[in-house]
Amino acid sequence: MVKKEFEILNHQGLHARPATALVTLASQFEADVFLLQEDRKINAKSILGVLVLAAEHGSKLIVQTIGEDEQQAADKIVELANNHFGMDVTD
Amino acid sequence: MLENKTDKQTESDNKQKFHGIASSPGIAIGRANIKFSANDLEIPSKKINKKNIDKEITRFIDAKECVNRELRDIQRKISQKYGKEYSDLIESQIEILNDVEVEKQIIETVSENLLNVEYVYKLIISEYIELLESSQSEFFRERVSDIREVKNQMLLKLISFDENNLNEMSSDESKIYFAKYLTPNDIIIHSSENIVGFVAEEGGLTSHISILARTLDIPMVLGIKNITNIVKTGEIVALNANKGVLLRNPPKEQIEKFKKEHKKHLEIENIFINHRNDPTVTTDGRKVRLAANISLPVEMDMVKKYGGEGIGLYRTEYLYLMKNEVPTENELFHEYSHIVKQLPNEKIAIRTIDVGGDKMYSKLGKEILKERNPFMGYRGIRICLDKPEIFITQIKAILRASHYGKVKIMIPMISTIEEIILSKEYIQKAKDILTKEGKPFDENIKVGILVETPSIAFLSKRIGKEVDYFSIGTNDLTQYILAVDRGNDKINKLFCHYDPAVIGAIRWIIKSAKANNIKATVCGEMASDPISTMLLVGLGIDTLSVSPIFLGPIRTVIRNISYEESKIFANKILKIQTRKEVIKEIKKQFDKKFPNWEKDYERLF
Fold it and tell me: Which of A8, A46, A91 would best serve as a mutation to test chain B binding (most B beta carbons within 10 A)?
């Protein structure tokens, strides 16, 4: 199991497009991918789960991965988050 | 008491003719397609036998596949008709439909609790809706409507799998869509299917769905109370949206009569199309530019078909309203340049976003819905100046599109001179950024304002030197001058652009434009009303900008009046004391000039 922390840098939070980007990436891995925020844990391959987190700008999340490609999965997701989930920086 | 009620019930069941508000003209015949709301569906819980678990899950998977196919199909059609940007609308629904976690939870719950799958689905998806609704952030709450739509589709599908009665209509049959209320998205989505008409229980004459239906040339009747509970899906209905009449199960001769009228409309349309290149000049040689109002790129086909001299008002809200977030500069640029490239030699006035007021609203903060006075609240340029990053992004996209033609910027809801100065500063800033980025644009792009608040109407003479043109938005100007909310059923009769105060204001604004040597346009609904044309021409208007379907009629009027007689007529109208008499005079004059109008162009009245 791998656990890594990251921060939401997008101004509008982890909403529609960033959430889709995250789910699309997470779904590419064999490993189970979860997001942890305070007492909540959701499946990062679920768009509804990610939306329900309603993670806003500046909130800190932990990605937890379990499975064969867990290290790569966690690294790539943190990388995506640091790149504003592929959105314009102003977004 | 009970008997009485039953009587009433039978009465409404037997009723065959209904009257509503004619909101978008035209005639349509087809099968009724009633939009169900998930809230109306009762989904009882049923125990299932352990043996049937797999069957129940297969039912869910099949329904999901079916909805998937339908959504993909709609998405393809929207993409073809409106462009790729608009198909995002469906993409988010597809994502929600295919959520892996929901599927897992459903399979687990059905297997463990031995419950029917539609009940389980409703339970699980409703939980997500509740969680999102309780979210602090607007951005997340707004996704609820997508989830509701998916829930609705899935439940309908799961139930019809049982009863096998909902989808017996063949998909290429003409349908008339019925709903309690319609949103712009409903119209976009369903106009990509075989929907030939719209009927809704709620809605007013000037609401934006009417504008959208009219510009897409789809007949629509609004305001028929309780109609979704009376008409049944699959029934044949006929819609005469010129008169606001709906017939249920009409006899053959009625259908024939409607079809005959429809044929006549097509003939009239053909006349307008054949004359689309006739110059809009009065009999004594005064040129009045006749441009079109549009909201979507798809309408450019109609502008070309009916011969619009450029675009006098391009409303840019729909892309913002339809997407789940603020569009990017590149998306906007793609959309605007697509329009500009189609008419590179004509002037195209792009209005910056005018959300707020009665427009559905989500991207920039839903708190607007709770405003006590939304029309006097956070809307138009006020939002843009409060959130300059949104404004500058749009201005940059407009500037980049200006490289490909004759683009003008139009700013809505200005109420102070400071707002004009500040807007121009931001426009300069956007230009500076583009210069740095090395992207080409028209350095001398014209900047105009919509004159629609009383304050700016009063100050128009002084403001004229700050801007390149005035565009008179008669809808909002009328509502602000008369202090009448046009969306309020109780008072919308008081809304009237023929009030002497409104006409006086228009005259003053045109005079102010002339004093400053700039042009004045009318782009509100008044411009699309043939009986107003003579008055507006007589007041000295330079441009009329109208819905594409009114280009033909307004061209006909302009070409058959003289500027001299129009001026005399306008002066006469300016002396009248009451709106009742103004309307009487305007109609009298129109009937005198065009005695056969109603007979010839019935569609328009």
Answer: A46
- Strands in A40-43's sheet, in edge-to-edge order, are A2-7, A60-66, A32-37, A40-43
Predicted-complex ipTM score: 0.89
Do B321 and B432 lie in a common domain? yes
Of B181, B582, B95, nearest in space to B360 by CA: B181
Q: Let me know if residue B460 belongs to a domain.
A: no
Helix B100-113 and helix B117-133: axis angle, to 10°? 130
In a domain, A91, yes or no: no
Task: Give the mean model confidence (pLDDT) for residues B274-286.
Answer: 97
Number of domains in chain A: 1
| A20 interaction partners in chain B (CB closer than 8 Å) | 92, 95
- Calculate mean pLDDT across residues B253-258: 86
* Rounded (10°) angle between helices B53-82 and B144-163: 120
Same domain, B399 and B516: no
Give B163's pLDDT tier (boundaries 50, 70, 90): very low
Same domain assignment for residues B88 and B148: yes
Answer with the residue of higher pLDDT: B460 or B263: B460
Which CATH number belongs to the domain containing residue B499 in this structure? 3.20.20.60
Most confident listed range (B16-20, B229-233, B412-416): B412-416
Q: Do B477 and B602 belong to one domain?
A: yes
Mean predicted lDDT score pLDDT of chain B: 87
Q: Which of these, B398, B386, B383, lies nearest to B448 by C-alpha position?
A: B398
Chain Cα centroid distance, residue B557: 26
Q: Is B208 a catalytic residue?
A: yes
Question: For B325, which of A17, A54, A56 is closest by C-beta distance?
Answer: A17
Choice between B229 and B521, residue whose per-residue pLDDT is larger: B521
In a domain, B77, yes or no: yes
Which tokens is B381 given?
């340029």
**DSSP for B341-367?**
HHSTTSEEEEEPP--STTS---TT-GG
Which residue range forms the structural domain that includes residue B509? 469-605
Regarding whether B552 and B442 lie in a shared domain, the answer is no
Q: Is B66 annotated as catalytic? A: no
Nearest-by-CA chain A residue for B131? A52
Q: Looking at the domain assignment, is residue A60 inside a domain?
A: yes
Q: How many CB pairs under 8 A join A and B?
A: 67
Q: Which residues of A sit within 8 Å Cβ distance of B?
A: 12-13, 15-17, 20, 23, 27, 42-43, 45-49, 51-52, 54, 56, 88, 90-91
Our CA angle for A11, A13, A17, nearest 5°, is 105
Q: What is the pTM of this model?
A: 0.74
In-domain check, residue A69: yes
Kindly report, residue by residue over B560-602, the tens digit of the pLDDT.
999 999 999 999 999 999 999 999 999 999 999 999 887 777 5
Mean pLDDT of B120-133: 90
CB atoms inside a 10 Å sphere around CB B334? 18
Residues B391 and B434 both lie in one domain = yes
